[in-house]
Design goal:
The complex is a heterodimer of chains A (58) and B (504). Chain A has 2 helices and no strands. Chain A has helices spanning 2-15, 32-57. Chain A is elongated, with a radius of gyration of 14 Å. Chain A starts with a helix and ends with a helix. Chain B has 504 residues and is mainly α. Chain B is built from 22 helices and 2 strands. Chain B has helices at residues 8-26, 28-35, 46-52, 59-70, 73-86, 93-118, 123-131, 134-165, 172-188, 191-219, 221-230, 247-261, 265-272, 277-286, 288-306, 317-325, 328-361, 369-389, 392-407, 410-413, 424-444, 464-486; strands at residues 450-455, 458-463. The longest helix of chain B is centred in the last third of the chain and has 34 residues, at 328-361. Chain B is globular, with a radius of gyration of 23 Å. The chains are: A mainly alpha (58), B mainly alpha (504). At the A-B interface, helix 1 and helix 2 of A face helix 6, helix 11, helix 12, helix 14 and helix 15 of B.
Chain lengths: 58, 504
């Protein structure tokens, strides 16, 4: 169950486009739209890694 | 066009790197034993060796192989081209290549275990064993073949694009692309792309990192770059990056691309060639590193605007940008990176398609390596035909159709893993109606990737592939229930199910 939620989070964060379809706040010159999506890359790696650990424990 | 023409330095560097990669890949069976002496007589068959690399690739090789054939040269050309012409909308490739990994993590280890236990090399093998249906096997195999041909064609176009950017015209660039691909795959098998994929990646990384560092320096930082680029794109109210009516297409295209991505024969080949199910899980954690690079590559489309590149042929956006900002020898290096980046995945695609022909489409199961090689060559000739007889624009449209077609194998291959009562006739019915519906919609919409729908006050454009998949699933479910009712649910009408619970 926990594993399923971990794996579904990236879908929720990225497929609801109005959530991040904005210019501000800007980070290092990158509009929010771009850095928000790029930030999901490392976050997704960590989430999958956590799901993997959960798998092994059970 | 105001960009400088390439000189001999560019051409020389290009040829040096491109030829070195081909020679290394083609001669892989001579030098590989030097690296690794322990494996000699353990291989089940030569066919599995050529086509699946002996199913022994560890975490690193799998990382390079899967990453190498998923992020193709066409990505380097087409994604920035789309961003160049549509702005933020073209960025949907980023969410697509993120959400694909949780999906891989959840699904592919199970599929790998089934394939290993049954000795399957292709999606169609798995489906035949699971549902006991030759017709369903053919349906899945032909979908894979039809979907991958335009994909290979696009890789050939990728090589042709950079050779043309070097100043050559006519049929020569295409011939060059074809001959190099054929030699490389014929001699090296799957070991060639697996062991040269790292060369490709290092070269692409160098090219992309140089671009994302040097271009903003030229233009006064990323803030200035984004600012300059937006002036070339239509302005949107409220600081939006994609317009209101593009948000649903953005999300549904990302989702359907993610579902389709690993149904293709070439991506599945990379997965099935892994050594263990845990190799795949580990890769799901680390493969997103490529996605960062993809995001940077996508930004090249905006940088081209900011750098003042004006071209009507969008596939020339990246080559023109490289020629404009790099010294010519380094532009030559970047072009070699793109060409090698097309060669590696095209070779895996041809092998994946050859596996399908040999295992699933030909009536008798054949294991000969020469047969597989000939099938691979046939596939490449087919792809060459796509390039020669259809124009480049149509090849891109064909690739879209390929995505719609391959997505229709989702119920048989992926939903087949779930504890659902699916039967072969129902899946075949679903596959046929989904494919016809999807192709029909594409045809009516003039080959656009999305179709407008409306119900209950809600209207939006949704990915055609996803709509067709919806039809496919509904038909599969309804047919399944009808067949069960009609036959009184006698157990003999349902195929015996294998256990999917075993861990690799």
């Amino acid at each position: 169950m926990k594993k399923t939620i971990l794996l579904l989070l990236p879908f929720a964060g990225l497929l609801w486009v109005p959530l991040y379809n904005r210019h501000d706040p800007v980070l290092l010159g990158f509009p929010f739209f771009y850095w928000y999506q790029l930030a999901w890359v490392p976050v997704t790696s960590v989430l999958i890694w956590m799901a993997w650990k959960t798998d092994r424990q059970s | 066009m105001n960009t400088p023409l390439p000189d001999n330095a560019a051409i020389g560097v290009f040829i040096l790197f491109f030829v070195a990669t081909i020679v290394l890949g083609s001669t892989v069976r001579f030098w590989r034993p030097l690296l690794n002496r322990r494996k000699a007589a353990t291989h089940p068959s030569q066919g599995e060796e050529w086509g699946l690399g002996g199913r022994e690739f560890g975490a690193w090789v799998t990382w390079f192989l899967v990453g190498g054939d998923f992020y193709t040269a066409y990505t380097v050309i087409a994604v920035p081209a789309l961003v160049y012409s549509t702005g933020g909308f073209g960025f949907f490739a980023l969410p697509y290549t993120i959400i694909v990994y949780p999906f891989i993590f959840a699904v592919m280890p199970k599929l790998w275990t089934i394939a290993r236990d049954g000795g399957h090399a292709t999606a169609a093998d798995i489906v035949r064993a699971r549902f006991g249906s030759r017709t369903l096997e053919l349906a899945v195999a032909i979908s894979g073949l039809v979907a991958v041909l335009p994909y290979i064609a696009l890789q050939l176009i990728g090589i042709r694009t950079v050779v043309e950017a070097l100043g050559y015209t006519g049929m020569l660039p295409l011939l060059f692309a074809f001959v190099s691909l054929a030699a490389y795959t014929w001699l090296g098998g799957l070991h060639a792309p697996a062991l040269t994929a790292f060369i490709k990646d290092v070269m692409i990384y160098i090219a992309v990192l140089a671009a994302v560092i040097i271009v903003p320096i030229h233009l006064g930082g990323y803030g200035a770059m984004f600012h300059a680029a937006t002036e070339h794109l239509p302005a949107l109210p409220g600081g939006r990056i994609v317009s209101q009516d593009q948000t649903v297409p953005y999300a549904t295209l990302a989702l359907s691309s993610a579902f389709a991505a690993f149904l293709y024969p070439h991506t599945l080949t990379g997965i099935l060639a892994a050594k263990s199910a845990d190799t795949i899980r580990q890769n799901a954690v680390f493969l997103p590193i490529y996605t960062i690079v993809l995001g940077l590559i996508a930004l090249l489309g905006l940088m081209a605007h900011a750098a003042g590149i004006v071209t009507t042929s969008s596939s020339q956006v990246v080559p023109q940008l490289f020629l404009a900002i790099f010294p010519s020898w380094f532009a030559g290096f970047c072009f070699a990176a793109i060409a090698v980046g097309a060669l590696v995945p095209a070779s895996v695609m041809a092998i994946g398609a050859a596996n399908l022909i040999m295992h699933n489409i030909l009536p008798r199961h054949s294991e000969s390596v020469t047969g597989s090689r000939l099938a691979g060559l046939g596939v490449k000739v087919g792809a060459l035909g796509c390039v020669v007889f259809l124009n480049a624009k149509f090849a891109i449209d064909l690739q879209l159709l390929g995505g719609v077609i391959i997505l229709q194998t989702f119920p048989a291959l992926i939903m087949g893993l779930l504890p659902l009562r699916l039967s072969a006739p129902a899946l075949i019915g679903g596959w046929a109606s989904g494919s016809l519906f999807g192709l029909g919609l594409c045809w009516l919409d003039g080959l656009k990737p999305v179709h407008p729908i409306a119900f209950g006050g809600f209207s939006a454009s949704v990915s055609t592939g996803l709509l067709a998949l919806g039809v496919n699933i509904v038909v599969t479910m309804v047919l399944g229930s009808v067949i069960r009712l009609a036959l009184g649910a006698s157990p003999s009408t349902l195929q015996p199910r294998q256990s999917v619970r075993r861990q690799g």
